[in-house]
Amino acid sequence: MNIPIIIVHRGDTFYLKLVLEQIRLFNPQNRICLISDDSTNKYDFVEHYNMDDYSEGANAFKKVYVHMSSNPYDYELICFQRWFYIRDFIEKQEMEYFLCMDSDVLLYCNINEIMQEYIPYDFTTCNKQGPGCALFNTSSISNFCRYMMSMYTEDILLSKMKSMYQGFIDNKRLGGICDMTAFVWFQDNTECNVIDIAIPTKGTCFDGCITWGLGFEMEDGKKKVYWIDNLPYGRLTSYHSLIRFYCLHFQGRSKYSIFKYILDKNKVHHSGFWYDLKWLLSKDILNARLKGIKKAINNPKMVVNFVKAKLK
């Protein structure tokens, strides 16, 4: 059975096309559903759906949301809202189960082959807190959205979040309450059958985040990747064994290096000085960096937070 793949993403960022192309490369038969805005309605190899048509739950959540993070309001809000967009979308589409992917995850496997064994679970997770590549069913996504609403409408949970965020402030730490917080609490406080697919099993795993070591060999702040037959592997430092990555998650600024990990249409990986230079000087990446600089200039707090993080 073909498992639908769903991505919620706002804006036509430089890496979105690369991610979508790679999903299609390994999954030629699957539905790839991009829930987005008009700016991304130009990729003819995926199904495009407008966010506004599935916004009822997202709008309801926005009314109760309380921002408790050093990250920008809009950034954290859409991270929460995407789950409501997905819930409303799959209800209208009458999907039984589906794979939710972050828009900065590169896939290196056929989902139908790999995910079939996880269908009996309520959902999958990566390193418990990471929903970057998560298989859900209709019931579990509804329960998760219901739980996120309760976090902001029930006094006990709201007080717990405020206390947690105050700890970030008192210790001068970046971060705060995000949808990953909800993902962890949902697992801890409800009855659900979950499996962590970031835990290496039979020589394979899904990557929760390329900048998280978690026992893997690191290089320049990211997991060191070994390319074998044009597929990515990481090395566990404790066992010196190679683990095949079914996906790599490029969270934060690691997105700027995503081009180093893509495959061409023949599933061949390329590297080298001239290849890297071509991408680094490409219009898309230069424009993305320029936008980042402009955003920083207009948001001095973001610059201060970035400098603090670097000084730690």
Topology:
Elements (H helix, E strand, L loop, with lengths): L4 E4 L7 H11 L5 E5 L10 E4 L5 H9 L8 H21 L3 E5 L3 E3 L3 H5 L7 E3 L7 E5 H16 L1 H16 L8 H11 L4 E3 L7 E3 L11 E2 L2 E2 L2 E3 L2 E5 L6 E8 L23 H8 L2 H16 L1 H12 L1
Helix pairs in contact: 2-3, 3-5, 5-6, 5-7
Total number of helices: 10
CATH architecture annotation name of the largest domain: Alpha-Beta Complex
Q: Indicate the overall shape.
A: globular
Total domain count: 2
CATH class of the largest domain: Alpha Beta
Percent of residues in helical segments?
Answer: 40-55%
Spatial ordering of strands, largest sheet:
3-2-1-4-7
> Unreliable segments (pLDDT under 50, ≥5 consecutive)?
none
Q: What is CATH's topology name of the largest domain?
A: Spore Coat Polysaccharide Biosynthesis Protein SpsA, Chain A
Mean pLDDT: 93
How would you describe the overall organization of this protein?
By secondary structure, the chain is of the alpha/beta class. It folds into 2 domains: 5-196, Spore Coat Polysaccharide Biosynthesis Protein SpsA, Chain A, CATH 3.90.550; 204-311, no CATH class. The chain has 10 helices and 14 strands. It has helices spanning 16-26, 56-64, 73-93, 111-115, 138-153, 155-170, 179-189, 273-280, 283-298, 300-311, and strands at 5-8, 32-36, 47-50, 97-101, 105-107, 123-125, 133-137, 194-196, 204-206, 218-219, 222-223, 226-228, 231-235, 242-249. The strands form 4 sheets. It has a 5-stranded mixed beta sheet with strand order 3-2-1-4-7, with helices on both faces. Strands 5, 9, 12, 13 and 14 form a 5-stranded mixed beta sheet that branches. Strands 6-8 form a two-stranded parallel sheet. Strand 13 and strand 14 (242-249) form a beta hairpin. Helix 5 packs across helix 7 (179-189). The radius of gyration is 19 Å and the shape is globular. The model has no long low-confidence stretch (mean pLDDT 93).
